[in-house]
Amino acid sequence: MKLALITDIHANREAFEACLEQAHLHGADRIALLGDFVGYGADPGWVVTRVQDLVSQGAIAVRGNHDEAVVQGPGPNLIEEARRAIAWTREQLSPEQLTFLSALPYRVEDSGCLFVHANAHAPSGWEYILGRTEAVRSMHATDCRHTFCGHVHQPMLYHMSSTGKIADFTPVPGVAVPVPAHRQWLAIPGSAGQPRDGNPAACWAMFDDARHTLTFHRVPYDLETTSAKIVAAGLPRSLADRLHEGY
């Protein structure tokens, strides 16, 4: 089975559509959505509806911190720009969409894989995996051989041997990486809707569980339309500007 991994869409319709189209072209059999469907962008209603449709068709979806914030109110760690976007987003969503977001699980285990937004050891605490220390802690918290996370807007792959040796590397887009089950793996596909690694192209990844490979992808999308929508909605202009630089 080929599983497309998409995360941190952040209400960016154009980026989400581009990722879904490319995933289809690459033969994805199923989709896993790793949270943060809303926040920052100007199309939260469309994105949530699309996520609902995909879940009804068998997609996996987990809760992100921005999804939780729009339902429960922003936590103390969200910056002012994010808070403004969350307040605006809440006004754009229907009661049904808010209920859908509030019902999303923090983590899902399926076919020996773990899907979570932030980490495996405390998924509702929203701690970032910024290096090997956090990655090890997360991998120690699950028996799954493959963990897929969002939250960090930069693609990264960690692996741990049976002896506990940890390594990491930044993947090259389009190059299949062997991810055999005799090691433990933690993969961060990067953000579809707001990349922060200096490359504005949307991120997604494909896990092939038959071949035990993981391929990270980048796909360009209509940045001009996306950023214009953000400005037109009255959201902070900085949220539009940063998309062009990928930061």
Automatic annotation (TrEMBL):
InterPro entries assigned: Ap4A_hydrolase, Calcineurin-like_PHP_lpxH, Metallo-depent_PP-like, Pesterase_MJ0912
Record's GO cellular component terms: cytoplasm
Pfam families: Metallophos_2
Coiled-coil region(s): none
Top-level taxon of the source organism: Bacteria
A GO MF term: phosphatase activity
Segments forming domain Calcineurin-like phosphoesterase: 1-203
Family: Belongs to the metallophosphoesterase superfamily. YfcE family.
Protein name (database record): Metallophosphoesterase
